[in-house]
Amino acid sequence: MRRALVALVVLASAVLPATAAAEPFVSRTCNGLSNCSLWFTSPVSLKWIYAGVVTSGCQDERFSQDTAGTLRACFVSDAGETASKSVTIQLDQTPPSVTDVVADRPPDHEGWYRHPVTFAPKAVDATSGVLGCQSVTYGGPDAADARIVATCTDRAGLSASRAFPLRYDATAPNLGPSTVRTGDRVVRLQWRTNATATVTRTPGIGGTNSAVLYQGPGRAFTDRKVRNRRKYRYVLTLTDQAGNSASRELVAKPDRHLLSPGKRATLGGPPLLKWTPVRRARYYNVQLFRNGNKIMSEWPRLASLQLKRKWRFHGKRYRLKPAKYRWYVWPGKGRRAENRYGRRVGRRSFTIAPA
User: Fold this and answer.
1) Is the pLDDT of residue 272 over 80?
2) Is residue 68 included in any domain, yes or no?
3) In this structure, what DSSP letter does residue 52 have?
4) Beta pairing partners, 122
5) Domain total for the chain?
6) Is-cis flag, bond preceding 270, omega within 30?
7) How many CB atoms lie within 10 A of CB 198?
8) Is the pTM value of this prediction over 0.85?
9) Average pLDDT over residues 167-180
10) In what order do the strands lie in the sheet with 232-239?
């Protein structure tokens, strides 16, 4: 009898369905994503998914204001069981602000850099905070208004850039076609580059080994504290605003001499004779010879004389025909009637070629 009763109970259990209570359930999405722990950079739509009776929270919500962390929670219950879920919304729609850059060393010269320099940017971010900034190295091109661009990123992944000025010049001044010209107790130096020039001479002045004779922004210097037939060495140094410098040595031996036409020049017509001016000379005597005979003597006041095709000398007519000529120049002192002349400026020859 007992065995029959047990079998009946088992059969009844198999026929009748079991009634189990459903447990409460809570989940959520942010902009459709299951992961709400991210930093968002656009408005966030929070949606709750639950089963049971809401006891607190669980309202769907849209966040459009930046927030470093706003807490929301959902609580549900059913048949004495409870379930809950919380979420912290992090929203940053504002890029960081790049505030400054700090160089790894000071400028090389009066605010100018002459060698590559690396800058470390600085930034602030009010919401997610600064994740990092990229260092920037500048090494050219040369420019007085050069720019570097600094970029920083916040923890939300937003980036911002800002340009900062600097002055950079790594190139020494170009000395260009610097020239030195000599005359009667005078040396003239010329250069073309706009830079601060320093002229040093050896020997110096007053018995010194060397001396700085000039320093300034000009493009030429005239040295009148020299003696004829003595060799002088000049060092021309040009320095730009960035402190770059370049130097060149120029050698000069001042003296009075003929300038043009060049030595043993061959010409097709009457030349312009030129020579270095002589100090305190009131006029000059120019003599022209052909085949050893003097065929002209002139007294110009300036240090040049334009020859002509025809002229008269001592009552005789002459013309500049194809031949070899030699010319001489002396400086005249006082009045011409005194017939006083200084040391000869020079002698030189030229040839008139057949037409």
Assistant:
1) yes
2) yes
3) S
4) 100
5) 4
6) no
7) 18
8) no
9) 93
10) 211-216, 196-202, 232-239, 245-252
Predicted confidence at residue 355, as pLDDT, reads 82
Domain of residue 344 covers 258-352
In a domain, 11, yes or no: no
Buried b (16+ CB within 10 A) or exposed e, 321-334: eeeebebbbbbbbe
The chain-wide mean pLDDT, for the chain, equals 92
Q: For the segment 129-139, what is each residue's pLDDT rounded down to a tens digit?
A: 999 999 999 99
Q: Does residue 153 belong to any structural domain of this protein?
A: yes
The one-letter code for the residue type at 316 is: K
Is a pLDDT exceeding 90 seen at residue 323?
yes
Q: Encode burial over 15-44: b for 16+ CB neighbours within 10 A, e otherwise.
A: eeeeeeeeebebebbbeeeeebeebbbeeb
Q: Are 69 and 101 in a shared domain?
A: no
**What is the identity of the amino acid at 328?**
Y
Q: How far is CA 299 from CA 268, 306, 314, 315, 346, in A?
A: 25, 12, 14, 17, 15
* Whether pLDDT at 101 is above 70: yes
Whether residue 148 lies inside any domain: the answer is: yes
Q: 């459709």: which residue's tokens?
A: 32
HSE of 284, CA atoms in CB hemisphere, 13 A: 26
Mean pLDDT over residues 265-275, rounded?
97
Q: What are phi and psi of 337, to 5 degrees?
A: -65, -25
